[in-house]
């Protein structure tokens, strides 16, 4: 009777070991001595097939998921240009437009003419300039005009420099009214935005260069 109980107990222990071995491919490999050659080979195949998932599980990561990337790890720079926005222009590139104002850089020439350039109904109202190079001109960098002025391309190569948000031209008319006396802040802003000039022979000379 005692021998029979021992036999039953040994069988239960063996079945328990077999159940534990069947829980994972790793357990099968660690308990390979309890399996036949075919079962051991099958266990190795399962380890090779499920190795990454088992590794993540051992690290406390759900199967099929990737470990989280630390927040302080910055993505590597690719050296590629930034994506394009809806207008087709690179997001981080400043689109500069140089316009030409013929004549000198006196207050009178850098100010709109009252009664002519300040008519609210005119789409071309403002200080008249062109994006086409012209001899004997001042070259104005429109991006340097500041917040008080904008360059509007109303037609062709013509750009009108005028105050923004000024549908009734009240600000433009106030500016034009100072043409004779000079000294208006907008006139000074236009002068400050000049980056070069062209000679009558068409030679471009930068501000500050010899012969400017």
Molecular structure report:
The chain has 212 residues and is of the alpha+beta class. It has two domains: 57 residues, no CATH class; 109 residues, no CATH class. It is built from five helices and seven strands, in the order H-H-H-E-E-E-E-E-H-H-E-E. The radius of gyration is 40 Å and the shape is elongated. About 28% of the residues have low confidence.
Envelope shape: elongated
Instruction: Give the biggest sheet.
Output: 4 strands, antiparallel
Average pLDDT, rounded to a whole number, is 73
Tell me the distance between the termini.
Answer: 120 Å
Low-confidence stretches: 16-22, 24-32, 52-95
Strand and helix order: HHHEEEEEHHEE
Fraction of residues in helix: 25-40%
Cα-based radius of gyration, to the nearest Å:
40 Å
Class inferred from helices and paired strands:
alpha+beta
Supply the number of helical segments.
Answer: 5
Q: In what range is the share of β-strand residues? A: 15-25%
Strand order of the largest sheet: 1-3-6-7
What's the oligomerization state? single chain
Number of domains: 2
The counted number of beta strands is 7
Write the layout of secondary structure elements.
Blueprint: H1 2-21, H2 25-30, H3 37-58, E1 98-102, E2 127-130, E3 137-141, E4 150-155, E5 158-162, H4 170-176, H5 185-192, E6 194-198, E7 204-206
Antiparallel strand pairs: 1-3, 2-5, 3-6, 4-5, 6-7
List its traits.
5 helices; four-stranded antiparallel β-sheet; alpha+beta; 2 domains; 7 strands; three-stranded antiparallel β-sheet; 212 residues
């Amino acid at each position: 009777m005692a021998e029979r109980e021992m036999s039953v107990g040994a069988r239960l222990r063996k079945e328990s070991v077999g159940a534990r071995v069947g829980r994972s491919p790793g357990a099968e490999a660690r308990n390979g001595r309890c399996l036949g050659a075919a079962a051991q080979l099958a266990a190795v195949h399962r380890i090779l097939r499920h190795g990454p998932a088992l590794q993540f599980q051992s690290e406390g990561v759900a199967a099929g998921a990737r470990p989280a990337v630390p927040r302080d790890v910055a993505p590597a720079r690719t050296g590629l240009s930034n994506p394009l926005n809806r207008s087709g222009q690179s997001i981080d590139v400043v689109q500069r437009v140089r316009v030409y104002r013929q004549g000198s850089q006196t207050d009178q020439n850098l100010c709109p003419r009252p009664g002519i350039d300040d008519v609210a109904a005119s789409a071309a109202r403002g200080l008249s300039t062109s994006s086409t190079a012209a001899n004997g001109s001042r070259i104005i960098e429109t991006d340097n005009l500041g917040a008080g002025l904008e360059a509007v391309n109303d037609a062709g190569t013509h750009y009108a420099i005028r105050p923004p948000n000024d549908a009734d031209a009240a600000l433009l008319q106030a500016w034009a009214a100072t043409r004779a006396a000079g000294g208006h802040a907008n006139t000074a802003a236009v002068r400050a935005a000049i980056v070069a000039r062209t000679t009558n022979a068409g030679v471009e000379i930068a501000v500050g260069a010899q012969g400017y």
